[in-house]
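Appendix B. One record, verbatim.
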Amino acid sequence: MEKLPDDLPECLVFLLGKAYQKAHGDFKKRLKPYGLTNMQHLVLEGLWYQNGMTATEISRLLRLDKATLSGVLDRMVETDWVFREPHPEDGRVYQLFTSEKADTLRDELIEERKNANDDIMALFSIEDRQTLTRLLWEMI
């Protein structure tokens, strides 16, 4: 990738946006054969971490706003990636579970994410990888 001219004012918002665009686009290509979006994959990984969470719990875990998550979950239910069941203690709330389809592809999809991460991190030294990860966590 071509380096920006040294006299161009630094714009971290621009640089972060372009880095996001590249990483997001590359991962989107990996997920296309599965019919999943990046956000849907994130939700699946959250549920594989702790199946049976409510939308509020997923929202908190993944730091997603509820309005965005609601539409994502609706589409995931429609396409059989997840299913809802009434919470045993509060029938007004639903728990979310990964489907058989999702669980069958679990290892493969996690491997896709790991490979995407590895491709990004291959650009950096071990120390820079640790620093980048730490700084990104601090930002969110």
